[in-house]
Amino acid sequence: MAQTGTILTALSDGVWKLTLNRPDRMNAFVADMHLELRAALDRARTDDAVRAVLITGAGRGFCAGQDLGERDPHKGRADLGQTIGQFYNPLIRQIRALDKPVVCAVNGVAAGAGASIALACDIVLAAESARFIQAFSKLGLVPDAGGSWSLARLLGEARAKALALTAEPVSATQAADWGLIWKALPDAQLMPEAEALAARLAAGPTLGLGLTKRAIQAASINPLDTQLELELEFQRRAGQSDDYAEGVAAFLDKRAPQFKGR
Asked: Is residue 6 part of a domain?
């Protein structure tokens, strides 16, 4: 495992594991952390050896969002719009646009933008001790980093508004029951299952998985006819891939496929 300041990175069997590493500050974000995480995700985009990404946090929390120590009003009022535009929005767009599966293992509290970042990932697992907190209203702020978008689409307007306005914590089990995340797990099982899931995805037909990710994300805004045409385009591309040929050949030969992501 390599450390690049505030992010721990490790590549194993095609899984690029990224660990938020400011445990003394509940992995709250500062500028350098944004830049290091985005650089690590950029490698995931360009490095063919990376076939899936796993994001988690060091210590007892996943991510507390923005480090408020950098936003002390006694030192002047920061332009939070600039912070969002320069750091958070590019990060969320990068996660959503990555044509490889992104698994998030929420090992503890995910608050504010930390919850938004987790929900931007493709598959979210959480330890049963974890909680999701829309902490913005406690500070007189609004959900950011895509939080208002994710909450409304995953939960509907009633629950999204209630969570955003009250900042009530949501347990991992409740989050799974509501469809906010995929699965809540006993704490000791979280990382083994998340790593196994990421490894399974990395060994899969990642070109097709990337197209599937894009298609499902587009479905939230596309009308049916547009989505049908998108499926046609993506299926044509997937059907011409080496992975599709290998998948069919393996099925006919009654053997395990060896996908290459192309």
From this structure: yes
Can you tell me the distance from the alpha carbon of 54 to that of 8, in angstroms, rounded to the nearest whole number? Answer: 11
- Same domain, yes or no, for 44 and 122? yes
What is the pTM (predicted TM-score) of this model? 0.92
Q: Are residues 190 and 216 in the same domain?
A: no
Yes or no: say if 238 and 230 are a contact pair by the CB < 8 Å rule: no
Q: Encode pLDDT of 57-89 as tens digits.
A: 999 999 998 877 666 666 666 777 788 898 999
Task: Give the residue numbers spanning the domain of 246.
Answer: 206-253
Same domain, 186 and 224: no
Are residue 25 and residue 131 in the same domain, yes or no?
yes
Question: Which H, E and C letters describe the chain, residue by residue?
Answer: CEECCCEEEEEECCEEEEEECCHHHCCCECHHHHHHHHHHHHHHHHCCCCCEEEEEECCCEEECCECHHHHCHHHCCCCHHHHHHHHHHHHHHHHHHCCCCEEEEECCEEECHHHHHHHCCCEEEEECCCEEECHHHHHCCCCCCCHHHHHHHHHCHHHHHHHHHHCCCEEHHHHHHHCCCCEEECHHHHHHHHHHHHHHHHCCCHHHHHHHHHHHHHHCCCCHHHHHHHHHHHHHHHHCCHHHHHHHHHHHHCCCCCCCCC
